[in-house]
Amino acid sequence: MQTKKIIYASFLIALGVLLPIIFHIIPGNIGPFILPIHYSAFLAGGFFGPIIGALVGLITPLLSYLLTGMPPNPIFLFITFETLTYGLVFGFLFYHRKINVYLSLVIAMILGRVVNIIGNFIVAIVLFKNISQPFIIINVLNNLSLGLIGAIMQLIIIPIIVERINIVFQFNKIIKEEDNV
What we know:
The chain is mainly α. It contains eight helices and no strands.
């Protein structure tokens, strides 16, 4: 990985740690509705592709948990795999395959949520064994309903950010220049 990619990825990881802090400080605890930890993985995938998107998606929730305790244990485990999936899938579809940004986002969101649900299922079985069925259903419904507002916001905000920042910083040009060095 080249120096500029490391610097930009580090910035996105820091952003992914700071945004949840900001949104959890705001009265009303809107963090779970806005899903601020997801943005850095989507942006990394959109700017730099699936590998960096996946790495940012993997590192951000882990670092956030270690520094701030958010997301709480054991939730940070399946959010880690969810954001890894977001960065990987969005980066692959949008950055490499050049699929429409909205379609790429929706597919990444669906697959990320599937990974999150599988994580919920595994944690519920391991932690709650015989009483896990109600927990799984309630947690899945809770995740889907809380995350709906955040997903709609992401569908509005992420394409604008990816398009505008790519125009200003020309990340595609930077990446190609570094690859030729």
